[in-house]
Amino acid sequence: MLYICRTFLVIICILEVNSIMFHLNPNSQKCLKEELRKEELILGEFEVSSVPGQKVDYVVRDSKQDILAQNKDITKGKFTFVTETQDVYEICFKSTVPPHQRGVPHEVSLVTKRDAEARRYETMGEANKLKPMEVELKKLEELSGSIVQDFEQMREREEAMRDTNESTNNRVLYLSLFSMCCLLGLSVWQVLYLRKFFKSRKLIE
């Protein structure tokens, strides 16, 4: 049973953990954005290659430019925050090189964990005197709930997109009918005008 729980945890954790590695050019900034749910716990771990004389700063912001976490001259560390609203959040890494120094790209690695994966279940288990099986089941329960919320959010987005598509299709249909009526009216007017013109020239009776 414990093996099955751990297997499910491994599968679910893949969906809850994001990892990325990239190169940050000298005197440049690179930002990563993601849309997050309301009241979602986020834990991030980063590591930046050290280059003498160069500095790298990071900052975490929401779409309103409110700062949730930041630090300067980083090499390795963690950050954590809880989202207040459903919004698009970004983390930016900025490289600074002195004018007299030739810059070298930094190698940046970032791992982010969401909700249940970001919680410390070992500490929770010790505090509540839970058995290892109970801790695993608790973690599995919260991870499953998080995935259910993700699917619910995807369903809401799908419904919103479907409503938008239907509304757009209706507008296109009405525009097409209006265009056809205009073309038909213009064609009738052209026929009547040409007929009147030819009659005035006595080209037709």
Automatic annotation (TrEMBL):
SMART domains: EMP24_GP25L. InterPro entries: Emp24-like, GOLD_dom. Its main location: membrane. Coiled coil: none annotated. The chain crosses the membrane at residues 172-194. Residues 1-19 form the signal peptide. One of its GO terms (cellular component) is membrane. Residues 29-139 form the GOLD domain. It is a single-pass type I membrane protein. Belongs to the EMP24/GP25L family. This is Putative emp24/gp25l/p24 family of membrane trafficking. It comes from Panstrongylus lignarius.
